[in-house]
Design a protein that fits this description.
alpha+beta, 2 helices
């Protein structure tokens, strides 16, 4: 298991509060999807704005970028 950091971002100026979660690399899609659903429940204004779920490894390197609108 590794510690990953997740956020919602527009890839330019906006980044949500960071969320950390322990996961296996092969489970990142499910982890990102679950994070997206919880963030959209609290922030419905994130819909249809070109936002992405960004997942970073322990070194801070982006290992996954998933368009938020496709995860809804």
């Amino acid at each position: 298991m590794q510690l990953f950091t997740l956020s919602i971002t527009d890839l330019t100026t906006f980044e949500s509060v960071l969320h950390e979660e322990w996961a296996e690399t092969e489970d990142l899609f499910e982890v990102g999807n679950r994070f997206a659903r919880s963030m959209l429940a609290v922030n419905p204004s994130f819909r249809r704005r070109g936002m992405c779920v960004a997942i970073y490894d322990e070194a801070g390197i982006a290992v996954s970028l998933m368009p938020l609108d496709t995860l809804q």
